[in-house]
Amino acid sequence: MNQYIRSVLLLAVMCLAAILPAHAQLPAPQEPKKGTVIEILGADTLQLIEKDTINVTRFIGHARFKQGTTLFFCDSAVKNNKTNIVDAYGNVHINQADSVHIYGNYLNYDGNTRIAILRENARLTDGKVTITGPELQYDMNAKIGSYVKTGRLVNGKSVLTSDEGYYYTETKEMHFQRNVVLVDPDYTLSTDALLYNTGTKIANIIAPTTINEGKRIMYATSGYYDTDKGYGNFGNRPTIEDSTGTLTADNIEMDKLTGMAYATGNMVYKDTVRKMSLLANHGTVNQVAKTLLATQKPLLIMEKGKDTMYLAADTLFTGIIKPGDSLSIPSVAGLKKEPVKEPLRAVRTVRPPREHIPITLINQGDSLAKKQLDSVPGNVMMFVADSVLAKTRDKLDSGRVKMVKMAQPPNVVMRDSLPGIKHHADSMALSAPPGKDTADQRYILAYHHVRMFSDSLQGVADSVYYSTKDSIFRFFRDPVMWSNNTSQLSADTMLMFTKNQAADKVLMIKNAFIINEAGPDMYNQVKGNTITGYVLGESLDWMHVEGNAETINYVKDQSGAYMSVNKAQCAIINIFFKKGEVDKVVLIKDPEGTVYPFTQRPKEQLQLENFHWDIKRKPKTKYELMQ
């Protein structure tokens, strides 16, 4: 019997030894995470419902909760005591540490993850910024508010909307995504992604973005814009566009308060109205005065059909011609005046060929139709002319020759030009008539080492002024032009008139000289105080030389063989062209001339005074201007 009792006791001890360690391995009940306990502050009515697996508490009327430093207010709520989730209804208000306030009509709050979802008139504010949307989510731990079903942010006068948005309340940064639109009284910004700091009011561009200011539109893909100060810095080739042109560069800085913009790196300004482009590595734009200063290898491109013109200089400047501004040019008042008819004197000749009349002398009462003047063939002395004024040639009747009279104007100092450059007074001022809007009229100023190239015309000068009001290029300080690789034009000052951005006329003032290469060491030459040349279409029509006019012309027969060299001088010379060749040479008023047989020409006398063949300065290709 005792043996049986001992066996039972031993078995009991063994069972207890096996059971006790098993109980020691069971997990102890977990305490709630710090800060996740939702404290009940009060309500008008409280109901505890426990049934099967349900364990909830209902709060009706002025329900109030607290979790850490966050307070919750609502009209009614239901708290799941097992999941620690609260659903609140009516006038929901969340106050996080008196810094962030969130409102809505419905709240779903997870006390464990501390993530709140609000719907129906949802709104989040930190005192300065207000975010609204049909649904807002707020992470109490990360302090991040977000919406994924469209939302709206109001920061002062700026309103931002997007499909998605994430607001970091501690750093005051907002990340907008998809259909982002920022509306400000002064501009509208639209993009698909944007970073915006509500404290500094700086918008960081992280996607293709459009900033519309009404009169100007900017396109950018990177950079930032200070919406408060109106300062922006944009990279990756942004573009500014207005009604007249576009500005593009590797980087553009702009200050809205001063109206200044700075473009660096491969800048391209395009005047879409006049089909002009200005290229440079650096540009300074005054958006108020509408001026552009281009430096670092600037290049102006003017499109005119197939013959595009390129102009390069050390510096290019363009601005708007305002009412009252003017730029005087040589007088054109006497362009249609008839010349004073003078008796003609005899011409001295040296063994002239019988079959050729090199120079035609017009006497009073003579008729071009009656004389049946022989043509004087020669190489083309091509240069630019005015097609409108060229029509004056149509007025040449068979009884008399109507000359283009150019009065010698006095020198005056110009206001809108280069320092130290003198121009001529004129009745053609650039100022607009009273009441006429000149906002679209623009001028271009190129100075120092100016080079010009087109297929039909090349040139160099120290400075050039061009106005869209009169379409005239003004070349100053040792200007030289070349045409068709054989003709050189030079004078103290040269004016190139254009029509539809194509050269129409050239006016050469003081010491005017035209040289045409007839052959090796042989040059046709025309010299005078003033030379005016005209074209009809794209061909040289005629030219008018006035004041101490001199000419040397190499004459060929019909087979192209040289026959003679004609040298003449008088007060006025008119030279007419046909198919690019000299057709007639008309000497008017006190003419004197000499004809040398080609084999007996005195080479030492075949260069007029101040002759200088400067072909080495001529730009050979447009690519030279781009280097």
From TrEMBL:
<keyword id="KW-0732">Signal</keyword>
<dbReference type="Pfam" id="PF13100">
    <property type="entry name" value="OstA_2"/>
</dbReference>
<dbReference type="InterPro" id="IPR005653">
    <property type="entry name" value="OstA-like_N"/>
</dbReference>
<dbReference type="InterPro" id="IPR052037">
    <property type="entry name" value="LPS_export_LptA"/>
</dbReference>
<protein>
    <recommendedName>
        <fullName>Organic solvent tolerance-like N-terminal domain-containing protein</fullName>
    </recommendedName>
</protein>
<feature type="domain" description="Organic solvent tolerance-like N-terminal">
    <location>
        <begin position="37"/>
        <end position="192"/>
    </location>
</feature>
<feature type="signal peptide">
    <location>
        <begin position="1"/>
        <end position="24"/>
    </location>
</feature>
